[in-house]
């Protein structure tokens, strides 16, 4: 009995030693082939440049075009900002690691990455919910739209997104990095993924993080239900419109937002439902890319291709920039 107790205490001391000596992690993707890593980094670079260009163009166009100074585009500008934050959190570091053939990331960088990813992700969910409410008021109560969606309401909506993102980031990051990490500090992902970090827990220290995750998933589900209810009322109102032109105009402003919502929530749902893998496959990698890289990259395209006002504003931006290219 004494031998068992002694071995248990030795094991506990070893776990505590491992948990205190971990100063970083090793990010490992599905393939250790250098050529495939370079190909992955090149594709990520293309995606990132497209996302950076598209979202910056939207932010610039809305900022300089006075015809777009309305609540809908005010929220869209902030959504593009969160898209930039969301993809910048993970992709640039992954590109550098692949080109330098080094997957090491320090503990503090990992903490910052988890916080920034959760912060921007939940802020984007909140912003999409606010935008659905804006479209609901615009379609269902057009005569009262300017009264309901005044400057104060718009500012409060953006502040709410910031606060929700901040609270979510602090809760997730605090709960995740309050656990003791044991064993090999290898994360089978191209960024510090929280489910992968929980697998490195020494014991049941990860239970508080599971509670936080369950609570935040419930909050995201409430946002999704709110968006669904808003669009149920929107489509019910649009289909009763006598004018075909009015229905087309309403759909042109609502469909891009609905596409973005479906893209963001469906890709996030894939990540939430799939169990974390000890030996990552190409499918695991692609599913992760779907919810971290694809939405910020394609959101600007969805809004600019389906929105006439955005296309007109973007043309103005290019026309104003062209003379400067030859100066």
Automatic annotation (TrEMBL):
Localisation per UniProt entry: Cell membrane
Topological category with respect to the lipid bilayer: Multi-pass membrane protein
Transmembrane region(s): 38-64, 153-171, 210-229, 250-273, 285-305
InterPro entries in UniProt: GPCR_Rhodpsn, GPCR_Rhodpsn_7TM, Olfact_rcpt, Olfactory_GPCR
Predominant location: membrane
Keyword rRNA processing: no
The keyword Membrane belongs to this UniProt entry's keyword annotation: yes
Originating species: Echinops telfairi (Lesser hedgehog tenrec)
Keywords of the record: Cell membrane, G-protein coupled receptor, Membrane, Olfaction, Receptor, Sensory transduction, Transducer, Transmembrane, Transmembrane helix
Superkingdom, natural source: Eukaryota
Family: Belongs to the G-protein coupled receptor 1 family.
UniProt-listed Pfam families: 7tm_4
Name of the protein in question: Olfactory receptor
G-protein coupled receptors family 1 profile domain ranges (all copies): 54-303
PANTHER family, per database record: OLFACTORY RECEPTOR
């Amino acid at each position: 009995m004494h031998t068992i107790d002694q071995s248990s205490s030795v094991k506990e001391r070893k776990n505590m030693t491992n948990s205190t000596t971990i100063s970083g992690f090793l990010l490992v993707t599905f393939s250790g082939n250098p050529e495939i890593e370079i190909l992955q980094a090149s594709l990520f670079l293309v995606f990132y440049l497209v996302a950076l260009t598209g979202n910056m163009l939207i932010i610039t166009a809305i900022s300089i075009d006075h015809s777009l100074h309305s609540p809908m585009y005010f929220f869209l500008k902030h959504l593009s900002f969160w898209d930039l934050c969301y993809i910048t959190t993970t992709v640039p570091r992954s590109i550098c690691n692949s080109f330098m053939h080094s997957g090491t990331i320090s503990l503090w960088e990992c903490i910052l990455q988890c916080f920034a990813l959760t912060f921007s992700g939940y802020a984007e969910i909140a912003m999409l919910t606010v935008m659905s409410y804006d479209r609901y008021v615009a379609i269902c109560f057009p005569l009262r739209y300017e009264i309901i969606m005044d400057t104060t309401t718009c500012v409060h909506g953006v502040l709410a997104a910031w606060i929700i993102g901040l609270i979510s980031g602090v809760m997730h990051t605090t709960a995740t990095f309050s656990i003791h990490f044991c064993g090999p500090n290898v994360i089978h992902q191209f960024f510090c993924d929280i489910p992968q970090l929980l697998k490195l827990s020494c014991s049941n220290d990860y239970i508080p993080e599971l509670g936080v995750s369950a609570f935040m998933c419930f909050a995201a589900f409430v946002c999704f239900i709110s968006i669904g209810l808003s669009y149920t009322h929107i489509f019910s109102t649009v289909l009763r419109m006598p004018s075909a032109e009015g229905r087309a105009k309403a759909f042109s402003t609502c469909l891009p937002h609905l596409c973005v919502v479906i893209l963001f929530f469906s890709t996030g749902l894939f990540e939430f439902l799939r169990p974390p893998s000890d030996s990552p496959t190409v499918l695991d990698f692609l599913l992760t890319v779907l919810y971290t890289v694809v939405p910020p990259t394609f959101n600007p395209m969805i809004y600019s291709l389906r929105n006439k006002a955005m296309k007109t504003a973007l043309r103005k931006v290019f026309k104003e920039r062209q003379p400067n290219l030859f100066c």
